[in-house]
Amino acid sequence: METKFTKGRLSEIQRETGIAVSEYWLNLLLGMNKHEVGVVKASGKLLEGEELAAIVRNYQTLDNKLGITLPLIIGGGPQYDELPSYRSSRKVNGIRVTYEQLLSEMVPVAQKNLENVVESLNCGGVEARAMPFGVLRIRPHGIEIDSKTGESIDTGYVGDVLYVDTAPIITSLHNSIIPVISHIGMDHDGQEYNVNATPAAAQVVKWLQAYKLMLLGDRAVEDNNGYTISEIKSEADLHQLITEGIIKDGMALNTQSAYELLKQIGPGRSVQITTPSDLLAELLTDGVGTIMRMPYIIQSYDQPEHLGENGKLELTDIFNSAFLERGLALVTDYWEESTLAEHPINRIYIEAQEWSGGMVVRQFDNMGYACKIATKPDYRGNGFATQAIERAVLDYGGLIWRTGLNENNPSIDFYDKAIHKFKNNGIANPGMVTDSFEANGYKVYVINAQRDKVDVLVGTAAKLPNTMQSV
């Protein structure tokens, strides 16, 4: 009998696991088709023992308790280590050169891996089915230029995904059967090709138009001290991590493939790198591993009148809808110059594509005062607020804001986590103060405040007139 995803079922899982699902993702899940949710890619290292058992346990929860059915793409890796031709083959730019003999040895192992994973899921009470190799339609990769030597290398039977035949995958998902997909694909003549599993999974996400790609391995992305890098914010950041040698070899290829995917499918989607035991958390939240997502397009305006009357009304609606649950709304003269006249508005940030969030920043000493930050309730958890704060810090050098100290204020937990994150991700400058303080009934947050001025800044911010009113 098919299990249907509901808020009630999710609440049960939240109570059991302590995983807190964002409203944004919850609302998406409630309105999605089965094939739009996400795709899981498991490294070949995870296809046996406790690692495979952990994947099965997560699928038991997702499929049997929540009614969420996710395609599973599997790699090869260690299962190929004993193949005679594999040991003598070479890699170029992370790609395994695959000549005819090696391919002939790999295909039976790939088929066995498929059957083993399907059997493990079925034995765990999760109905699964192996997809034919032909769901990945391939064109030859051809020549690869070695980045180290400049040599031109014929990669043999290495393929790139031309398109994904989504029909059998979607049929399986809508019948609540897990489609398990190999990294072996076929061209139109039935010739098999070796495809790197991560780019293959990225293509499945693209052709299904799914929201999440979860890459399961033995660890998330770590820095040189072994600490998890929680987020890779941009392609430039990724390039720097690769240049510094923090990300290398197969992980470099995987993360580059991930960003190519994100550039094609845009904001609102994510790629998350984690371990099998954390799969559930990665699907339902930003996770505990490494997340990559395309930045939102954030427009900035110097003056409220540049928004136009309709723009001001829409931004007012964003703020009022966000504060309604706390019984608050903007004061009627919020946009007038006389409101907080000593701290005039000098920057407004808007999520430009869907107008899902906005932030108003006022002049405040030598930094910005984020007078209002809000995301529409249905979009909470989409990453806009964090990105807007980071953008303002880049524009102003430092930022200060406050929120009311009361029990029904959900912003406090979010801002506390954000400040902790900013302390460790390069936004906070060494020697400057990035922290939170309590004053005059408010919790005041500062990023990059001068140490000798922080007490005055906090005290001033906490005493500013309130620009919200009860409704």
Describe this structure in words.
This protein has 471 residues and is of the alpha/beta class. The protein folds into two domains: 7-292, 3-Layer(aba) Sandwich (Carbamate kinase); 298-470, Gcn5-related N-acetyltransferase (GNAT) (Aminopeptidase, 3-Layer(aba) Sandwich). It contains 14 helices and 25 strands. An eight-stranded mixed β-sheet has the order 5-10-2-1-13-15-16-14, sandwiched between helices. Helix 7 (197-208) runs parallel beside helix 9. The mean pLDDT is 91.
Q: What is the top-level CATH class of the largest domain? A: Alpha Beta
Oligomer: single chain
| Number of domain units | 2
User: Can you tell me the CATH topology of the largest domain?
Assistant: Carbamate kinase
User: What profile does the largest beta sheet have?
Assistant: 8 strands, mixed
Task: Please state roughly what percent of the residues sit in beta strands, choosing from under 5%, 5-15%, 15-25%, 25-35%, 35-45% or over 45%.
Answer: 15-25%
> How many H/I helical runs?
14
- State the CATH architecture of the largest domain: 3-Layer(aba) Sandwich
Q: Approximately how much helix is present in the residues?
A: 25-40%
What is the end-to-end distance? Answer: 47 Å
What's the gyration radius in Å? 25 Å
- Low-confidence segments, given as residue ranges, are none
Look at the structure and name the CATH superfamily of the largest domain. Answer: Acetylglutamate kinase-like
| Counted beta strands | 25
**Could you give the order of strands across the largest sheet?**
5-10-2-1-13-15-16-14
